[in-house]
Amino acid sequence: xxxKLYKSTIVLxxxxxxxxxxxxxxxWQEITPNVVNEIKVGHGAYINEQNNNLLISSGxxxxxxxxxxxxxxxxxxxxxxxxxxxxxxxFEHDLAETLGNRAFAATTSFYGSTVVIGxxxxxxxxxxxxxxxxxxxxxxxxxxxxxxxxxxxxxxxSVIIKDTLYVLTGSDAKNNFxxxxxxSLVDSKNELIHDNNLVEQFNINVSWNTLPSLPLxxxxxxxxxxxxxxxxxxxxxxxxFAIGGYLLPxxxxxxxxxxxxxxxxxxxxxxxxxxxxxxxxxxxIINAKENNIAKINSVSTLGQSHILAFTDQxxxxxxxxxxxxxxxxxxxxxxxSVDTKNYLISESVSSTNGDIFSLNRTVDDQGSLKxxxxxxxxxxxxxxxxxxxxxxxxxxxxxxxGLFFVFKNKNTDDYFRGGQTIPWWAxxxxxxxxxxSSLTYVALPAVVYQTNWLLLIGIWMIIAVAPIAIYVVMxxxxxxxxxxxxxxxxxxxNMGVRLFASGLFTxxxxxxxxxxxxxxxLALSAVTPLSASESVLIxxxxxxxxxxxxGIEAVIWTDTIQTVVLLVGAxxxxxxxxxxxxxxxxxxITIGFQDDKFTMVNVDFSASSITSLSxxxxxxxxxxxxxxxxxxDQSVVQRYMVTKDPAAASKSIWANAGLAAPGALLFFCLGxxxxxxxxxxxxxxxxxxxxxxxxxxxxxxxLPIGLAGLIVAGIFAAAQSTVSTxxxxxxxxxxxxFVRPFNLVKTEKGYMNAARWLTFIMGVLGTLAGLIFINPExxxxxxxxxxxxxxxxxxxxxxxxxxxxxxxxxxxxxLVGIFSGVATMVSAWLMGWANGYIFGTIGIVSCxxxxxxxxxxxxxxxxxxxxxxxxxxxxxxxxxx
Length: 881
Prior knowledge:
The protein is an alpha+beta fold. It is 45% helix and 18% strand. Strands 23-24-25-26-1-29-28-27 form an 8-stranded mixed beta sheet, covered by helices on one side. Strands 2-3-4-5 form a 4-stranded antiparallel beta sheet, with no helix packed on it. It has a 4-stranded antiparallel beta sheet with strand order 6-7-10-11, with helices on one face.
C-alpha cells in the first residue's frame, strides 16, 4: 500500500505541469488625459491610432439599448466634433460627417492616416470614403475624398492587406464585399501622398472591385449586420476573418429589439485566383455567460495567430487562427464595482504594435463611451530554480568539454581537422547537428504546427543524396587532402574562383549563425527571464570562449552530446504530448487526419506550382539543399577529413542519413502533436508568443521540473554547437584560402594565432547577425533559413558540380556560372517567381547551365584534370596503392 502511494505521488509530481493552466487576464485601464476628467462619446464612435495619436469620432448619443446602427439611425442630430488624444493632451476639432466624422463607419490605419468608410451621415447610410490625417505640428485635421462605395453601407467593416483595402457591408447593402488598391497613394518613401491633384487623379483612375458576398448565417433570419473583419495568419498566409455581428428576423425598416448573435464565422483567402475565392464558413464560437451566445461587438488581432473578440456580455474571447479553437479570457472589472454584472462592454477597438485601445461602457452607464487601454496580462515566467540550475550546470559542462581540447591543438591540422582521429560515429553526430541542430528542434515543429507534412519528403532526400556524397563527393576531397572545401576550386579552375566561393560561404555562415542564435534566443525568451537579445549575447560569449580555444574537436564532441540529448528529449516530449490529450494517440491521429495535418504530397504541376510546395518543388528542393551541403558547405566537408580514412568517412555519412530520416519524422510528429494539444487546450497557449517559440514554451510549461531545464539547455547548447561549427569552418576557409596561399603569416604558430583570432571575429559577426534576426515580422525562421541556403549555397553547389561533371568548364565559365546563379536566385527572391524551398536547386541548375555555356566564350588553358572530374577521378584501388 505504501509503495503504491509512493509511486502515485511520484507520478503526480511528474505530471503536475500537465494539469496546470496558464490563465491570461485581460486588464482594462481607463485613460484620462490631464486636460479633462474623462472622454465621453456616443455609440458607434470609432477609434483609430495614428502615429501614437488617437483619433476618436463623435458617435450618436442614446440611452436606449441596443446600440446598433439600425436602432440609432435617424434618432439624433448629426455631430461635428472629433477628438484627438495627443500624449496627455486632448484636442477637439470640428469635422463634418461628409469629411469622415461618421458613426458606425469602418476604419483602418493606412500609412499614418485613417481610412473612414461608410457609416451614418445626415441620418442615413453613407457610401462616402475619406482619408483623415492628423497633423501634429499644425494641430489640424485634413480630409481627402476617395472613390465612394458602390452601395451605401450603414455599418461596414474593413481591413487592409498589402495596400489593398477590403470592405464588408451588412444586409442593408446586400452583404457585399469590395476591394480597392490604394498603393498608388503611397510614394517611393512609403509615405502617404498629401496632394489634392494626385488624389483626384487616383479617384479617376481607380475603382472598387466586387468580390464574393458574405453568405447569410441563417436562412431563417435574412438580415445580418455588425460582422467585423480581422486579418490573421492561419499558418498558410494572411486570411480575412469575418466574426461576430447579429441577425434580425426582418429587414432594417421593421427593426425589432430582439437581436440574435451570430454564432459562426467565415474565412476568406485574398491570395487565391478570383475564380477560386469564396467565404469558408465555420461554427463553434464558445458559449458566453449564462449559456447564451454573446454578440461580438469588436475584434482585434493579437500576436502572430490570435484574434480577440469582445462581446456585449463583457466577455473577451480568443480565437487561434491556426488551430481554429476558441477560449475565453478573464477580465478585470471597473474600479469601485461591487456588482459582478457591471462588466465592461467594448464597442470599438484600435490595435497597433500590440497596443489595443477601446471605447467601452458599463452596463449601468449606457449613455456614452469612455476611452480604455487593454493589455493582456500573462502569467509570470516561472522557469524555476531547479530548471535554471540544470540549464546553468549543463551549459558550463559543455564549455568545459570544449576547453578540454585546448591543449591538444599543436598546429592548424589539429585545430581544423582534429589530427584526423575522430571516430566515424562522432563525425556522424556532428554532421547531423551541423545540418539541423536547434533549427530542427525549435523551428521545424513550429512550421509543422502551422502547416502539415509537405516538407518531410524534401528532408528525406538526404537518403537519396547520401550515396552521391559517399561515392562521388567525399573521394574528391580525400584525394586532394583538402582542409578547405574550396581548395578543389583552385585546382580545378583558378585562385580567383576559389576566393570568390570562399567569400560567399563566409557570408552564408554568418547569416546562418544569426538565424540559429535568433531561433534559440526567441525560444529562451519565451520560457526564461532572459530577453532574446540577452540570450544571443550569452550564446555568443560562450561560443567565443570554447570554440576559439578548442578547435574542431571541441565542436565535434559537444555536437555528439547535443545529438543524444536532443533526440531523447524529443521522444520524451512527444510522449508527454500524447499523455496530455484526452484520448491519447487516438486524438493525435483523428484530429490530425481531420484537419489535413498529415498531408505529405501536393500534386500540382501547373505553371504556377513553382511558387508553392508542390511535390516536384519539394523533391528537387530537398535534393538541391542536401547536394549543396555535401558538396560546398565547409562545415560538412570538413567532417570528411576528420576521420582516419575514407571508409570511416563513408560510415559517418550513412549514419547521418540514418539519424536524419527518422529524426525528421519525430519532429513532424511533434509539430502535429503541438497542434492537437493546443487545439484541445487553447487556454494553455500564450497568445503573444511568436510561432517559433511554441515548442520551447510547451517544454517549459508542460514537462516535469528538471527535465524541462535539461531539454531547454540542450536546445541552447545545440545552437552553440552549430554556431561554433560555423565559427571554426569560416576560420578554416579564411586561413586556408586567403592567408596561407599568400604567405601572409610566416610560422605555424602564427597560423594558429590567426586561426583563433579569425574564429573570434567571425563569432562576433555571427552574434551581431543574431541580434538582427530577432524580428517579430519574421514569421518563420525555418523559411528564412531555406532562403539563406538557396541564396548562398545553391550557386556554390552548382560550381562544384560544374567542375566535377564537365571537362570543358573553365575559370571564366565558373565565374559566369556563379554570378548567374546568384543573380537568378536574387530575382526569384525579389520577384517571387519561385518558392524559397527550391532556391538551392535553382542556384545549382542556373550555375551549371550558364557556367558551361560561358566556358565557350573564353579560351581554356591546358590543365591537368587528373582526379578533378568524375571522368578522371582515381579509383579507390589506385588511391590506396
